[in-house]
Amino acid sequence: MKIHEYQAKELFKKYKVPTLENGVATTVQGIEEHAARLGYPVAVKAQIHAGGRGKGGGVKIAKTAEEVTAAAEAILGMTLVTKQTGPEGRLVKTVLVEQGVAIKKELYLSIIPDRATATITIVASQDGGMDIEDVAEKTPERIIKVPISTITGIQGYHLRRVMFGLELEKPVMKEFGAVLKNLYNLFVDYDCSMVEINPLVITAEDKIIALDAKVDIDSNALFRHPDVVAMHDPNEDDPIEAEAAKFNLNYINLDGNVGNMVNGAGLAMATMDIIKQAGAEPANFLDVGGGANAEMVENGFRLILSDDKVKGILINIFGGILRCDILAQGVVQAAKKVALSVPVVVRMEGTNVEEGRRILSESGLKLINAKDLSDAAKKVAEIVA
Length: 385
Ligand code: ADP
Ligand code: MG
Prior knowledge:
Blueprint: H1 5-14, E1 22-25, H2 28-38, E2 42-46, E3 59-62, H3 65-75, E4 79-80, E5 90-91, E6 95-99, E7 103-114, E8 119-125, H4 132-138, E9 143-148, H5 156-165, H6 170-189, E10 192-203, E11 208-210, E12 214-217, H7 226-229, H8 239-246, E13 250-253, E14 258-262, H9 265-277, E15 284-287, H10 294-305, E16 312-319, H11 324-337, E17 344-350, H12 353-362, E18 367-369, H13 373-384
Parallel strand pairs: 14-16, 16-17, 17-18
Antiparallel strand pairs: 1-6, 2-3, 2-6, 4-5, 7-8, 7-10, 8-9, 10-11, 10-12, 13-15
Helix pairs in contact: 2-3, 5-6, 9-13, 10-11, 11-12
The chain binds adenosine-5'-diphosphate and magnesium ion.
């Protein structure tokens, strides 16, 4: 679960990762009041669950009360488009106001789990700031990675490897080491799947401060973190994903145009792979579940159809506990209720497959039968091409 920068900074405070004095507001007046209290300059920062805000006009430095008002009016209520939001952007409803600081150096620092080495890995660079993706692409040697075994936890030599890799100067080392250790503890204690500070700055007075803060917490661990659950912002939910959650469906919105409905997460992953192999892109991941009933299939089908991106649908079901006839009933029910506007390719095998095929063929719906998985992928790819 992602949280906002201001919420991540609350966790940072708790773990003694230094941040600046700040305030959160949802009105222009609120922003002005915080700025007056904090003193100028201030940074006025849009709070959305996506990075790249600075480049999209969602972060402004204001040196006077007039500039604060102008920044507040520009940012509050804007639809902020960044590299990470997609072209539709996000509506800004909440703004963080914080002290402005004179920056000597911008570092990049993050902690992520690395599945390949089964470690918690620190990723850092002295080329922090807004273009870390470019650094990774053009000068990957400027990015250092330090893996940490979860058995030893973070040790002095890990800290030193990061600090020497960043070519830090002596006066900031002690503080940097403490900050990194605290951040690691936060990562572990809160079951994070990512903690990222970009930039972590060294100020003109050689102080270390987290200017940005991104924290992502493993949703499977939320039962241990009621304080994080309370940070949930429904404004940031994908509307189709929120609808899916109500029906207990595992749905993830993706960028492509092939809607797909599959039973079982493993089969769903394989289906997405095979769609890509056929030259198309999946519009979603949807696992209707092994024990789905006709109603769940209907709900899933409606969700897929509510997505404008979808130009073709692939239904790939291996009938086990979810029998093919039940699936067929769900598809027919849903198709009758909503205007079926896109072609549907069906690949179905397993329990009661003949009965399932009979229901579909007698339904009068225009469905395209596939003889196997690769045939199904090929057919749906041709449709959306
Ligand atoms: P994003 O990564 O979404 O663009 P950041 O919080 O990193 O947002 O802000 C973008 C840039 O704005 C930072 O790299 C930094 O240079 C500047 N900035 C952000 N907060 C402050 C602040 N409090 N004082 C001075 N500059 C800031
Ligand atoms: Mg940033």
